[in-house]
Each structure stands twice: as structure tokens, then as C-alpha cells.
Design a protein that fits this description.
single chain, 368 residues, alpha/beta, Rossmann fold, Heat Shock Protein 90, 5-stranded mixed beta sheet, 10 strands, 58% helix, rod-shaped, binds adenosine-5'-diphosphate, binds magnesium ion
Length: 368
């Protein structure tokens, strides 16, 4: 809607019909203005209930409800609480009535008879103010709508991310089991057959025997590789023995592969965690370890898990170069963002603290 073109209403209140006609005529010269007239304070009150006015021109002296009293009542009403009121007063109005006027909520005075130019320019100022106000209110409403839309779309994206993660985790679990079971069983079968052949080979066929032994070794290595692959997709220990055991296993595996010393401190008793929470905590732990290898240049890691009143607290500390504040705020730090998002559905949070040259400490809290 184009508010610049909208009609603004001005209320003129005067018991003298000639004054009202003069006012209407003058104000009618202003563009896009509708002049509403009232012959008494009471009528003014009725008008104010029906419409919003940009400004009210109020004759101070009227029989019955006088201008000051009418202004006071207008100010008491929610709809007209902020409508500016200009009093029209006799030329030699005394000081006490001026004070009364301001108390009743006057914003200005014009002496009667008003000079056409002064009247028009004063009213024009308030009309302009009124239009700007309306525009502002509309902009605020629009912005609120936009904010609401953004918030909703953010909620939907979050829900989608949670869903995709769950789907991926299920898929990984399934593939991990299939690799482990089917491939593992097939390899065991091949190994037994190879053994059978080896046992029946004539002693003098040394070349064949060597080949058969080499094949057995290759099969053993493959079995091991399959086991690792399956565990990397979804460690069995997480589903069977729980988060603490899985973290312990992962830390050991990490130490073996990376050569970085890993000290793990686990509570004797861990409250039972559902699959979603333990999966989230475990994947975050893996991501933290990956980051340490990639970025920290650390030689030692301390891992601790506690169950605190706020929930489960996992702390991972390295003695590397220390994560920088810039990395924490960087919208490209997708790993960090992913970790933060992972705990949000549970109302959890992650705190990163980096000390240059001393290391990084990460605390993951997941309410249980
Ligand atoms: N343990 C750490 N020590 C030092 N810097 C780190 C550590 N973990 C993360 N960072 C910094 O934070 C950045 C963002 O990490 P992340 O979002 O996981 O992205 P990526 O690992 O893909 O670079 C990294 O590029 C690195 O600069
Ligand atoms: Mg990373």
C-alpha cells in the first residue's frame, strides 16, 4: 500500500459553525486530507471513537464539555491516546488556561482567528508525522512477518538436518552390519577352503604352498579391513555396550592410528542414554578427534565424561596450538556448526575454549 497517497483525517472541533466552515475551507487546500467537523466536545469524543485522526483542532471555549475537558477524555482512550491536539484560543487567553491545555495533552496553540498560513503549515507537519508513523508501523509489521517466516524456515531446516542425520545413521548402521556379517562370513568361508586346499597340497609343491599361505594372509588382512570399515561406519560397541565403552574404544583406536597419547577418564556409572543422544555424543567425539589430527598439532589428549546435574558432560582437551576465535565465529566452520547443531535438539550446548600455544578445550553438554 502506498501510504504517501492515503488520505489523512483531521478533526476540527468548534461550537461556532462559521469557524468550522472557515477551518474546513482552509484545511481542504492541503493535499490528501479529509476534514471531519464536530460542533461540541461530546461530538468530538464520538468521532474519535470511530476514526483515527492525524491531528485534532480543538476550540478551547465551548459550552457544555469544554475543549480542555474533551481533550483530557480523548487522551484517556486507547485509540486516541497519542493523537496530537492543537487548541484554538482567544487572542488574550490567560496563562492558567494555557497550563490547563498542556495538562490536557495539548501539543500546540493557535490564536483565533488563525492565520491561514500558520494553521496550514502546522497541520501539515502533523499530517506528515502521522503518515510517517503509519508507514513505520507497516514496516514493523512487515519485518515481523519476514522474521516469522525466517524463523519458521530455520525451524524446518533444523528438523530436516536432524532427519537427514538420523537417516544417514540408520543407513550406516545397516551397511556396517551387512559388511560385517555377509562379507565377514564369506571371507571366513574362503579362508577355510584355502586352509583345506593347503592341507592337501603335496609336500614337494612348495611354490603352490607359498601361494596358498600368501592367500591366507591376504584374507586375514581383508577380514581385519572389513572389521575396521564396519566399525568406522557404526561401531558395534556403541549399540551393545553404550557410549562410555564406545568412547573408550574410539580413543584407543585413535591413539593407535595417530600416535597421539589419549588419556580417558570415564565414570563408573553412566546413566542410560537413548540412541539419539549417544549417537550425537559419539559423532561429536569423532569429529573432535579428527579436528585435533588435522589442526591442533597436539601430542596429548584428555577425554573425560561425567554425569552432571545439567546432563551428560563430555570434555575433550588437547595440548595443541589452540583454536582461534576467528575459527569459532567463521560461518565456513561447517564441522563446528554441525557439532553445535547436533546437540540443539536435546537443548544441549558446546563450549570451545582455545589458548594460543596451550591447547583447546571443548565441553559438550547434553541434557539427559
Ligand atoms: N583442536 C583444534 N585445535 C586448533 N584449531 C582447531 C581445532 N579444531 C578446529 N580448529 C580450527 O577450527 C576450524 C574449523 O573447524 P571445522 O569446522 O571442523 O572445519 P574443518 O575441520 O573442515 O577445517 C579449523 O579449520 C581449525 O582452524
Ligand atoms: Mg573438522
Amino acid at each position: 500500500m502506498n501510504t504517501m497517497q492515503s488520505i489523512a483525517s483531521v478533526l476540527a472541533v468548534d461550537d461556532d459553525p462559521r469557524s468550522l466552515t472557515a477551518l474546513s475551507g482552509l484545511l481542504g487546500e492541503l493535499p490528501a486530507i479529509r476534514v471531519v467537523t464536530a460542533r461540541s466536545g461530546e461530538e468530538a469524543l464520538r468521532q474519535v471513537l470511530q476514526s483515527d485522526f492525524a491531528v485534532i483542532l480543538m476550540d478551547a471555549r465551548m459550552p457544555g464539555l469544554d475543549g480542555f475537558e474533551a481533550a483530557r477524555l480523548i487522551r484517556e482512550r486507547e485509540r486516541s491516546r497519542h493523537t496530537p491536539i492543537i487548541f484554538l484560543t482567544g487572542a488574550y487567553e490567560d496563562l492558567s488556561s494555557v497550563t490547563r491545555g498542556y495538562e490536557a495533552g495539548a501539543v500546540d496553540y493557535i490564536a483565533k482567528p488563525p492565520s491561514p498560513e500558520i494553521l496550514k503549515s502546522k497541520v501539515a507537519v502533523f499530517v506528515e508525522l502521522h503518515r510517517k508513523n503509519i508507514k513505520l508501523v507497516q514496516e514493523i509489521i512487515e519485518r515481523k512477518h519476514v522474521e516469522e517466516d525466517l524463523r519458521r524456515s530455520q525451524d524446518r531446516l533444523r528438523a530436516l538436518a536432524v532427519h537427514l542425520q538420523a537417516v544417514r545413521e540408520e543407513e550406516w548402521t545397516r551397511i556396517s552390519r551387512e559388511i560385517h556379517d555377509q562379507l565377514g562370513q564369506a571371507l571366513t568361508g574362503v579362508k577355510m577352503d584355502m586352509r583345506w586346499i593347503f592341507d592337501r597340497l603335496p609336500k614337494e609343491e612348495t611354490a603352490l604352498q607359498e601361494k596358498a599361505l600368501a592367500a591366507c594372509t591376504l584374507i586375514d588382512d581383508t577380514v581385519e579391513a572389513v572389521r575396521e570399515l564396519s566399525a568406522r561406519l557404526r561401531p558395534e560397541v556403541l549399540d551393545q555396550l553404550g557410549l562410555a565403552a564406545a568412547i573408550d574404544w574410539q580413543a584407543g583406536d585413535f591413539q593407535r592410528r595417530s600416535g597421539i597419547r589419549c588419556h580417558v577418564s570415564l565414570p563408573a556409572q553412566v546413566p542410560p542414554l537413548d540412541r539419539e543422544r549417544s549417537t550425537a555424543a559419539f559423532r561429536i567425539f569423532q569429529e573432535l578427534l579428527t579436528n585435533i589430527v588435522r589442526h591442533a598439532a597436539a601430542t596429548r589428549i584428555d577425554v573425560a565424561m561425567q554425569s552432571a546435574p545439567g546432563g551428560l558432560v563430555l570434555t575433550v582437551e588437547d595440548n595443541g596450538r589452540g583454536i582461534e576465535a576467528a575459527a569459532l565465529d567463521n560461518p565456513d566452520s561447517l564441522g563446528l556448526i554441525g557439532m553445535r547443531e547436533r546437540v540443539l535438539p536435546f537443548g544441549g550446548h558446546i563450549d570451545f575454549t582455545g589458548q594460543r600455544g596451550k591447547g583447546t578445550r571443548v565441553q559438550v553438554t547434553i541434557p539427559v
